[in-house]
Design brief:
- InterPro entries: Acyl_CoA_acyltransferase (IPR016181), GNAT_dom (IPR000182), NAT_camello-type (IPR050769).
- It comes from Upupa epops (Eurasian hoopoe).
- Pfam families: Acetyltransf_1.
- Keywords: Membrane, Transferase, Transmembrane, Transmembrane helix.
- GO terms for molecular function: N-acetyltransferase activity.
- By secondary structure, the chain is an alpha+beta fold.
- It is 48% helix and 23% strand.
- β3 and β4 form a beta hairpin.
- α1 runs antiparallel to α4.
- It has 8 helices and 7 strands; from the N terminus they run βαααααβββαβαβαβ.
- It has one domain: Aminopeptidase (3-Layer(aba) Sandwich), CATH 3.40.630.
- The chain starts with a strand and ends in a 6-residue tail after the last strand.
- A 7-stranded mixed beta sheet has the order 1-2-3-4-5-7-6.
Length: 221
Amino acid sequence: MASFRIRPYREEDYDAARSLFIRGILEHAPTEYRLFLRSAWTQLGLLVLFVGARAAAGCWVLGLGAVALALVAMWLQVRAFVTSYIQQALGTDLQDIGASYLRTPNSCFWVAESGGSVVGTVGATPAQDNEAAMELKRMSVSKEHRGQGIAKALVGEVLRFARARGYGAVVLTTSTVQVVAQRLYEGQGFRKVATYSPSLLATLLRFKLFRYRYDLPGGTA
């Protein structure tokens, strides 16, 4: 069984933590693209495009070419959507992890270390929309180290941290494409409390966010 340890973030972890986050989010782009392509509206649109292009050009090859171009355009749009989220995160709390998570008593950021390398991250900070709840953020585990219990251990660290500070609940947000994460959180006792789409583009891409909550008994914050 692979060994690892969970420890507080240090400044020398900066590049590794950000790189781990970027790789983890980019992994979801193909899944989001497939989800978009499975939409009945997307498939109908591609069919209409093929029929229209074939009728206009009188050649089925050109019809297929039009569909191929549309598929490429859709992939670029999905990729841009994912990249914009990454840039937003890198420009906010992940721009200065120490300042965002380590300079107040009710926030923290941890890394999972294995073989001298950072292979997982998670952060905790008071939820902006609920003063009695702590929010779990920036959970990521490297692809090569999944299935070793690292994610479960990182979640447990956040729960213990929140409980020790008297918080009544831990909340988090995950997405449609993060199916494995959803199973992890539900297996840990989190329950889904809200579903929403963050933007019109997200709605068109069939991308939704899920809000989860874990109630901590005896919390007083």
